[in-house]
């Protein structure tokens, strides 16, 4: 079995979590004395999201996978979730943020499981970082690292570069860096190697600084010798020659 293989979360479970997160937002909005009339309301967003979830369920139960449809539905749903999450912030419901992080990551994983491309990665970068910052369990961090790698491998080409320019988009770069940091925190040398290889293959120009900063962290924190050995090997190959 591949080191990067994990079963994607259930779509039905994600829908259930969404309903739990959406309900307090809709309720808080409808208690406003003068809700803004020029913006799409949480209830309107909820209706649109439920339509997308229903379409995703139909696609999932179909006889043949449709990666293009999955990519479109996943992208539309993630963008609608971003709008609803913005309403949660406006309404002071900051405790719901973690639920949206989980939802967006689950949706991206669903898209990948259906053979689709991930077209919007900005919210996923934040969700991955937020989720990792809340996690201390090494097994959960490994699962999160594998998810980050699946997203990287399935990111649409247009999401990898800045519009009209031949260099990486900051979210594409941050996605790799965050995934590399989380992989290091797993203390799993084999998993670190998979993620580091992804970084040097996709963004070789970013590798020297990442491994230089990684070596600094090795000196500051109490990492096992096997973890230090992996970081040192990549540092020696990708960073040390540029320092000489």
Commentary on this structure:
71% of the residues lie in helices and 0% in strands. The chain has helices at residues 11-30, 42-60, 67-90, 97-113, 122-134, 138-154, 170-186, 189-202, 207-220, 225-238, 240-243. The protein is elongated. Helix 3 packs antiparallel against helix 4, helix 8 runs parallel beside helix 10 (225-238) and helix 9 packs antiparallel against helix 10. The chain is mostly helical.
Taking all residues together, what is the mean pLDDT?
A: 90
Gross morphology is: elongated
| Termini gap | 41 Å
Radius of gyration: 20 Å
Strand content: under 5%
H/I helix tally: 11
Helix-strand string: HHHHHHHHHHH
Count of β-strands? 0
pLDDT under 50 segments (min length 5)?
1-5
Quick summary:
The protein contains eleven helices and no strands.
Please describe the topology of this protein.
Elements: H1 11-30, H2 42-60, H3 67-90, H4 97-113, H5 122-134, H6 138-154, H7 170-186, H8 189-202, H9 207-220, H10 225-238, H11 240-243
Notable features of this structure?
elongated; disordered N terminus; 11 helices; single chain; 244 residues; mainly alpha
